[in-house]
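[job 4417] fold queue: 2 targets
>>> target A
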Amino acid sequence: MTIVDMSRAEFAELENIATVSDKIRHLDQKGYARADIARILGKRYQHVRNVLEADALKAAQASEAQDGPALDGAFRLEIGRDGSIMIPQGVMAALGISGGGVLAARLDDGELRLADPLVALRKVQEMLKPMRERLRKEGISLSDELIAERRAEAMREVRE
């Protein structure tokens, strides 16, 4: 929706709302884009964003305070309009990550699985363990083979 799409009744409805923040929330609920809300109200985009992001953060904190994350079970994650996922503080603490941290992710049969990168690495190592043992029994060293391949490649480059 754009400013052009607003009817006089909608403009009149806005006049009955007391605060700018409430007007922002009202227009957001009606489906207006943040940039359009800023234009309609004559406010900066950052003001609109701050109000809506603060509301999303408060809602996530309230939800976590009510339910608390079931660290060994299922819980709800909020997806922001930009695709970001809000992870509850309790879950972040359990994973040992903080804002700006990194998780390993895998899409598996319609499920998005998130894991601590070290846990994901240990799982991969565990999956490869039988192959490593078999190769070791056969006297094959993948690292030695890789080094030999790299040396041969370097020799070819020198000759060219």
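>>> target B
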Amino acid sequence: MATERITLDMDSTSLHVARSAADLARMPLAEWVARAVRDRGIAEAAAHTAEQDQLHPDLMKEWAEEIEQRMFEDGGE
């Protein structure tokens, strides 16, 4: 995966926690931070999606039905 260098300012307590967690996981700090950010982003996106599904329960059903209809109309191509 391509990487990009960034500068990150962090309070000393958070940095200590991150370094300790990276050491426990036996991985470089940069890799641990990248994984933590990715995991958090995925979790927040999933929570947002679940919230939207509760607010608009028929949207996904309609979408799934539309996709199914398209598959059978054009032979799935």
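[job 4417] complete. Note on B: Residues 29-55 form the longest helix (27 residues).
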